[in-house]
Write a structure and sequence with these properties.
GO molecular function: arylformamidase activity
Strand order of the largest sheet: 2-1-3-4
GO biological process, one term: L-tryptophan catabolic process to kynurenine
Number of helices: 3
Oligomer: single chain
Order of helices and strands: HEEEEHH
Largest sheet: 4 strands, mixed
Strand content: 15-25%
Protein name: Cyclase family protein
Number of strands: 4
Radius of gyration: 21 Å
InterPro entries: KFase/CYL, KFase_sf
Number of domains: 3
Length: 177
């Protein structure tokens, strides 16, 4: 039910935005993905119990914890009211304000990189910032070859799978031509 509600909201938003885009002779690319959700741990309702997924959810790599969905029922004179609580890390999925999340130190800033104080954050973005040309960079073959060295799974040991910034298995400015 929650997935259908979220999907419908995204569809309506995409339709509203997409109609304007289509009229301009462009097309819309939907980058949304289902958000895996888990029941809460008994001792801490804000932490996920990954052994209790909702539907077919599987944990995903994330900077935060997995998403928690807990449903409570409150009795009413006519039955009950379902109230869902969703605890979601802002780093799940595609989001618009990545510019404010990863802050380089001077040594790691790429040539031509935008300093934090010059970047637009989510509350500063307008529609004109979210519509534009796209460059598709597909390094999936390189990544799959590297993952194939370890049965399809990454390993933190670069001798097994190498995803250091200096390897060919990450996107760099050289991939964008």
């Amino acid at each position: 039910m929650l997935r259908k509600t979220i999907a419908m909201a995204v569809f309506i938003l995409a339709l509203v935005i997409g109609t304007r885009t289509v009229l301009a002779g462009s097309f819309l690319i939907d980058l949304t993905h289902p958000i895996p959700t888990f029941k809460p741990m008994g001792a801490d309702p804000l932490k996920p119990d990954t052994s209790q997924p909702w539907l077919d959810s599987k944990p995903i790599p994330t900077f935060g914890q997995q998403t928690v969905l807990s449903i409570s029922q409150f009795p009413t004179s006519q039955g009950h009211f379902d109230l869902g609580l969703l605890v979601l890390s802002e780093h799940h999925g595609t989001h618009m304000d990545t510019a404010g999340h990863y802050v380089n130190n001077p040594e790691s800033m790429e040539k031509g990189g935008i300093p934090l104080n010059k970047r637009k954050l989510a509350h500063q973005l307008g529609a004109e910032d979210l519509i534009g040309r796209v460059v598709l960079i597909d390094i999936s073959g390189r990544v799959q070859t590297e993952l194939g060295k370890n049965g399809g799974k990454p390993n933190p040991d670069p001798q097994i799978t190498d995803f250091k910034d200096t390897s060919a298995n990450v996107v760099t400015a050289d991939d964008i031509a």
